[in-house]
Amino acid sequence: MDSSALPKSPQRANPNILITGTPGTGKTTTAEMVALAAELKKITVGDLVKERKLHDGYNDDMDTYWLNEDKVVDEMEAMMADGGMCIDFHTCGFFPERWFDLVVVLRADTKKVYDRLEARGYKQNKISENVECEIMQVVLDEAHESYKPELILELQSNTVEDMEENVEKIARRVDEFRRKHAQKL
Ligand code: ADP
């Protein structure tokens, strides 16, 4: 997709970017690098959920928290209002569409996802569920159900070179957004 297809967001001088994808596709690492390269503020939503208890307890079977989507949206609303945020999370459909100017869906080969989650010490059932999720492109489908096609950028994240290219691509979109906003003033 050409960068000229960036959606209009007249109120915000800085874009909000969502980086989503199956766990292990590289969201958090990519978001950190994008935040540095493009001078955005980063929120790893998974950390926010834990720190501010935006959940309904712990799911022992899946070794994860039961997400309380309403609490997450309420907590983040003020943070997103002025733009300039780079957030990452493994699911994306419950965020308000109006928050985002770019939705990046990271993808990775099954073997990469498997190895990264194994290295993280995930239980076998959690690894299998996530690998299956990546094969079935669950997050990509969710993004397409929730956001306009021109907002979505699907990127492969298998190698360090992929990651560096992805960061550059996203940072260019941020520049483009800022330029367009400045022209409108
Ligand atoms: P996520 O946030 O999607 O769960 P992380 O950013 O935590 O994924 O990445 C999981 C692991 O995989 C980390 O050790 C990270 O350094 C590594 N990793 C992620 N993306 C890549 C990539 N494109 N190339 C090499 N290693 C990667």
Automatic annotation (TrEMBL):
Record region (LID): 119-129
Binding-site positions, ATP: G24, G26, K27, T28, T29, R120
UniProt feature coiled coil, ranges: 153-180
Subcellular location(s) per record: Cytoplasm; Nucleus
Keywords: ATP-binding, Coiled coil, Cytoplasm, Kinase, Nucleotide-binding, Nucleus, Ribosome biogenesis, rRNA processing, Transferase
Secreted is among the record's keywords: no
Segments for region (NMPbind): 44-67
Transmembrane domains' residue ranges: none
Reactions mediated catalytically: AMP + ATP = 2 ADP; ATP + H2O = ADP + phosphate + H(+)
SUPFAM superfamilies: P-loop containing nucleoside triphosphate hydrolases
Any GO CC annotation of this UniProt entry: cytoplasm
Keyword ATP-binding: yes
UniProt-listed GO biological process terms: ribosomal small subunit biogenesis; rRNA processing
GO molecular function, one term: AMP kinase activity
The enzyme's E.C. designation: 2.7.4.3
Enzyme kind, highest EC tier: transferase
A Pfam family that the UniProt record links to this protein: AAA_18
Region Disordered, annotated ranges: 1-25
Family: Belongs to the adenylate kinase family. AK6 subfamily.
Function: Broad-specificity nucleoside monophosphate (NMP) kinase that catalyzes the reversible transfer of the terminal phosphate group between nucleoside triphosphates and monophosphates. Has also ATPase activity. Involved in the late cytoplasmic maturation steps of the 40S ribosomal particles, specifically 18S rRNA maturation. While NMP activity is not required for ribosome maturation, ATPase activity is. Associates transiently with small ribosomal subunit protein uS11. ATP hydrolysis breaks the interaction with uS11.
Subunit structure comment from the entry: Interacts with small ribosomal subunit protein uS11. Not a structural component of 43S pre-ribosomes, but transiently interacts with them by binding to uS11.
Database matches in PANTHER family: ADENYLATE KINASE ISOENZYME 6, POS9-ACTIVATING FACTOR FAP7-RELATED
Full protein name: Adenylate kinase isoenzyme 6 homolog
